[in-house]
Write a structure and sequence with these properties.
2 strands, 6% strand
Length: 163
């Protein structure tokens, strides 16, 4: 076996982190677990590219620009003070927050969830692997990303649902 146990990851990292920031529920927990599976296989904390590593960090493979943009253009809104405080609860004082994406799993999960929270439309149903995969592709991986809403990735979202 490589990587983390999906069921433990879902139960001990994803669910509590999302509950803490108030953006939980079965659909969100399955989506975040599936996203980590398709982005990193629950194995890689640095993006693997030909010739080394890329900019994406952590199990959710968030790029520093995306991380910093969430803080600068979303969590800076005074109306989101409670949400900002809950996310800050998950971050440590050191190292810099963006540098915590590989090792601070609850914080990285919260930041990835915020990327989805900013996306238009509701989350797909908790048991809809194909819908969650399409949602991931259009709102997280985007048209510029290398991922695809194909049977291989749908199977990973199904694995997250069943965990």
């Amino acid at each position: 076996m490589t990587g983390l146990c999906v069921a433990q990851f879902k139960r001990t990292i994803v669910s509590p982190a999302l509950s803490h920031i108030g953006l939980d529920g079965d659909a969100a927990v399955n989506l975040m677990t599936g996203t980590a599976l398709v982005e990193s296989g629950l194995t890689y904390v640095a993006q693997v590219v030909a010739g080394g590593t890329g900019p994406a960090r952590g199990l959710w493979q968030m790029e520093p620009f995306t991380h910093d943009d969430i803080w600068a253009t979303f969590l800076s809104d005074a109306r989101l003070a409670s949400l900002r405080g809950a996310v800050l609860d998950l971050a440590s004082q050191w190292p810099a927050r963006v540098s915590q994406l590989p090792g601070n799993l609850p914080y990285a999960c919260a930041m990835a969830r915020l990327k989805y929270y900013r996306a238009p439309g509701p989350l797909p149903a908790a048991d809809d692997a194909a819908g969650q995969c399409r949602y991931w592709k259009s709102n997280y991986n985007t048209s510029l990303g290398a991922g695809a809403a194909d049977s291989t990735h749908i199977a990973l979202f199904q694995q997250a649902i069943e965990a």
